[in-house]
């Protein structure tokens, strides 16, 4: 293990293969923010190497430098012992490295085949694109990497899992044998994660090297052999996964010991008034839900991919249309498909996709946090920027958002810190009902505690909270959890459930019936 090893002398496993990539003494500043400070990483051939760190530690910045999207202010990157190509030579970069991001880089309106051969279409002597040759080449490429996808289908119809496999195959077709996976499991269910991991293992056998970024530490123990930890822009440690215990890994990430505690769970008062009432709700995809929740109650809606949990939640808050049913908050019936009506009725919302429904990236933290509460920042009919900044400063402090101040554009924040801004905005209206859809996706272990701590605070003030997730830590804080499977609620579990029982129920298995 190399605690705080100086970059350039980061220990790797014994072996004489030149590093697939070696980044040394990397420093990168954005204005006054130091995103990377004399940091580095060495990844050796055939490894699956984890890169972990808290939100804002510098992981994405390193990825952008390793993939040639940004230049470091200082330091050097080498592939296979040779200096990295000039930034403008995109083809040369593509032959060395690719990153599969959480957000797709595939063009949805083009077919899979067109995406695979974008700008390198086979053309005949007449200069026209040879569509059948293109399709055959795409089929050969996917078959070579065992990706079972119809190349004629529009990319928009791919599942997240298929899209990732197609992007990996595309990277390999450029010749890259080093692939960065940036939170690849964030949108996959348990079965999808298993398939991805077995694909990673297969490709590793075939000589592909991976850099794997994830906030799910158990995944790192399952699939990675080396781990590098960044904290506050610096390289902290690189070690074989087997030699770093989970507490030691968390300590390296946070600089302190963190344990998820759920001590002091206070059950909701049985006579508390009903705050949310959902009757015979049917979503456009046919998922169904009836439920009530009391003031101060925290109710989980759990389920794997395809369970309908996100659809029902989106239908409750108006993000998605309903095919039937009624939703009432504190006795007020909500207009179907209307988010503004839900907000007006006292709903605070953390949507699943912060990129699409959550934030306006070019606006500041202050503007985003106060967007839905103009009345709280008005003074004599005018927006008071002092009030706005004060509210945003409270949010930054309360949620420990890593930013230099309320004026920082949200686009400049790391992913986990953007998620905290979304939470801050949901809380700004002092909601009666808080609906959190996969609230800790992409959030580090310490920030998770902060976000889930918020739930404990607001419930004490009488806010009803609905937590929609398949993350056990998110669900542990709930008074009860409704488990959905294939569009129906198949069970309800009281606080204190066992992990095995909940996971089995989410997979549609009733352990007690076997
Ligand atoms: N374009 C930018 N302009 C200004 N600051 C930036 C920019 N990109 C990143 N930063 C800052 O650099 C620091 C490192 O951010 P980075 O996105 O690399 O973190 P991360 O480890 O990937 O975090 P997360 O796990 O939340 O995605 C953060 O403080 C972030 O606010």
Automatic annotation (TrEMBL):
This is Sugar ABC transporter ATP-binding protein. The keyword Transport applies. The keyword Repeat applies. Transmembrane segments: none annotated. It comes from the Bacteria. PANTHER family: CARBOHYDRATE TRANSPORT ATP-BINDING PROTEIN MG119-RELATED, GALACTOFURANOSE TRANSPORTER ATP-BINDING PROTEIN YTFR. Residues 21-257, 253-511 form the ABC transporter domain. Keywords: ATP-binding, Nucleotide-binding, Repeat, Transport. CDD domains: ABC_Carb_Monos_I, ABC_Carb_Monos_II. It comes from Plantactinospora sonchi. GO terms for molecular function: ATP binding.
């Amino acid at each position: 293990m190399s605690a705080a090893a100086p970059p350039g002398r980061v220990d790797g496993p014994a072996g004489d293969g030149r590093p697939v990539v070696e980044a040394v003494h990397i420093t990168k500043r954005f204005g006054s923010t130091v995103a990377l400070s004399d940091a580095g990483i060495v990844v050796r051939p055939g490894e699956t190497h984890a890169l972990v760190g808290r939100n804002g530690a510098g992981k994405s910045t390193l990825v952008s430098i390793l993939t040639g999207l940004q230049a470091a202010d200082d330091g050097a990157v080498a592939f296979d012992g040779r200096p990295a190509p000039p930034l403008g030579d995109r083809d040369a970069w593509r032959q060395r490295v690719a990153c599969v991001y959480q957000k797709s880089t595939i063009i949805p309106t083009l077919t899979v085949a067109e995406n695979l051969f974008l700008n390198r279409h086979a053309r005949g002597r007449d200069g026209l694109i040879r569509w059948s040759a293109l399709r055959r080449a795409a089929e050969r490429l996917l078959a070579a990497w065992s990706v079972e996808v119809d190349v004629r289908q529009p990319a928009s119809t791919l599942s997240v899992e298929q899209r990732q496999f197609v992007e990996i195959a595309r990277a390999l077709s450029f010749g890259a044998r080093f692939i960065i996976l940036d939170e690849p499991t964030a949108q996959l269910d348990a079965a999808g994660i298993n398939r991805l991991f077995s694909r990673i293992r297969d490709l590793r056998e075939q000589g592909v090297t991976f850099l794997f970024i994830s906030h799910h530490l158990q995944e790192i123990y399952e699939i990675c052999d080396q781990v590098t930890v960044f904290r506050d822009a610096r390289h902290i440690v690189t070690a074989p996964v087997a030699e770093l215990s989970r507490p030691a890994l968390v300590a390296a990430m946070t600089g302190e010991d963190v344990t998820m505690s759920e001590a002091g769970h206070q059950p909701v008062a049985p006579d508390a008034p009903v705050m949310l009432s959902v009757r015979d709700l049917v979503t456009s995809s046919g998922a169904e839900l009836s439920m009530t929740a009391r003031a101060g109650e925290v109710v989980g809606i759990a389920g794997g991919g395809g369970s309908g949990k996100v659809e029902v939640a989106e239908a409750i808050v108006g993000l998605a249309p309903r095919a039937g049913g009624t939703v009432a908050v504190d006795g007020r019936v909500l207009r179907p498909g209307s988010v503004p009506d839900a907000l007006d009725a006292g709903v605070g919302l953390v949507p699943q996709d912060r990129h699409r429904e959550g934030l306006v990236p070019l606006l500041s933290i202050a503007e985003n946090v106060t967007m839905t509460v103009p009345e709280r920042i008005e003074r004599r009919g005018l927006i008071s920027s002092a009030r706005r900044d004060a509210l945003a400063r409270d949010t930054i402090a309360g949620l420990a958002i890593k930013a230099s101040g309320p004026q920082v554009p949200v686009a400049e924040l790391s992913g986990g810190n953007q998620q905290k801004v979304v939470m801050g905005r949901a809380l700004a209206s002092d909601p009666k009902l808080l609906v959190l859809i996969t609230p800790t996706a992409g959030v580090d272990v310490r920030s998770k505690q902060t976000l889930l701590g918020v739930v404990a605070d607001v419930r004490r003030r009488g806010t009803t909270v609905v937590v929609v997730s398949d993350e056990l830590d998110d669900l542990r804080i709930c008074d009860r959890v409704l488990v959905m499977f294939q569009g129906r609620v198949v069970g309800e579990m009281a606080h204190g459930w066992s992990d095995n029982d909940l996971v089995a129920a989410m997979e549609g298995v009733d352990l007690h019936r076997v």
